[in-house]
Amino acid sequence: MTDQTGQTRYRVAVIGGTGPQGKGLGYRFAKGGHDVVLGSRAAEKAEAVAAEVRERLDGTAAAGSVTGLANADAVEACDVVLLAVPYDGHDELVASLPLAGKTVISCVNPLAFDKRGAHGRVVNGGEGSAAESAQELAPDATVVGAFHNVSAVLLWGDDEFLDEDVLVVGDVVEAKQVAMDLAASVTGRVGIDGGKLRLARQLEPFTAVLISINRKYKTHAGLRITGLDAPH
Amino acid sequence: MTDQTGQTRYRVAVIGGTGPQGKGLGYRFAKGGHDVVLGSRAAEKAEAVAAEVRERLDGTAAAGSVTGLANADAVEACDVVLLAVPYDGHDELVASLPLAGKTVISCVNPLAFDKRGAHGRVVNGGEGSAAESAQELAPDATVVGAFHNVSAVLLWGDDEFLDEDVLVVGDVVEAKQVAMDLAASVTGRVGIDGGKLRLARQLEPFTAVLISINRKYKTHAGLRITGLDAPH
Q: What residue stretches are annotated with the Pyrroline-5-carboxylate reductase catalytic N-terminal domain (chains A, B) (predicted)?
């Protein structure tokens, strides 16, 4: 479905929609005119957070709808599914969802923390990533990786757009385009095609570097790619 | 040694100084007022490239010196050593150099290429990086990681500074500061402290993402960190 401006209007299920990353991305997508269904284990919790997002959007011209459902029902209601869940329990949750035929966007970051700070967790002996695991667990879905590096604080903050780029990786161009389109709601410009799905191995743990910078410089660091003319 | 502006003037051995990354970084360091000794397996080859860099710098006010020596002699002549060598043969070369007591900066990228493009090579089962390998092989040196993501083409190009940030990782603050200072010769501002040395696992293969972007968008992509006031 396209709106009056010609922008494709997506209907996005946000799994983990009551967590800070999912809620923040859901808010931005709806603010950008997409319809959002926040998913949670319990429908009531999802609906309560959806009400909070709707209140935040009140008065925003052309905002999309925001509702809340249990995770599997949210997936059933949408063509696009954003996985915004913690890495712990990720595989079991993904395997339980009816993802066949869906465009699935993973922003899952397999990170670990110790007294030396954040660092990447090793997935599949270094030859895997959360996004690739999701693709293996849902072979009839099309999985891309994106939105790994955006700050939940800034997503829920007051800036019109985040001063960052969204890198999108995947093996299917059309599925990458969905995430690149959605990125415009977050950053004000389409996302950047960062290559094949296996490069999620690089995007996911890069968040550990940004967390280190945040700690050192007391900021919310983001990533921009230089050398590209806007709009890409 | 400090120059008249108060900037620390380093004496940097560039191992792999005849390759595009080493030559380009050596050029930029010397342009910024640091003294550079390009190293190569054969002193004559190093001296030939040094002459080329000197010619390029001719007339540049306050440029540092550029000379060429065999790798081990270059190391002996300097306090700071930049490892700008291919990952193939990296470990053997590092083990052969007299690095004890030196500040060693690794910009080595363990990458592999196949018909799907560039991707990161798995070092030590996913729990290692070229920089960490160098630290293990030279336990009496202090190794940091930096300059992984800068384009050799842009380094040798005509822009006064590159529109990128240099991320520096390491476990010793003073050693990171050396690389952060040197970064100013490349980007016009000091580098960014990106955290502990183990995060080189993230910086090194991120270059594969930039290579993918370069291929897709026909550019020389770079990385900037947002959310930091300049100067850092």
A: 11-110
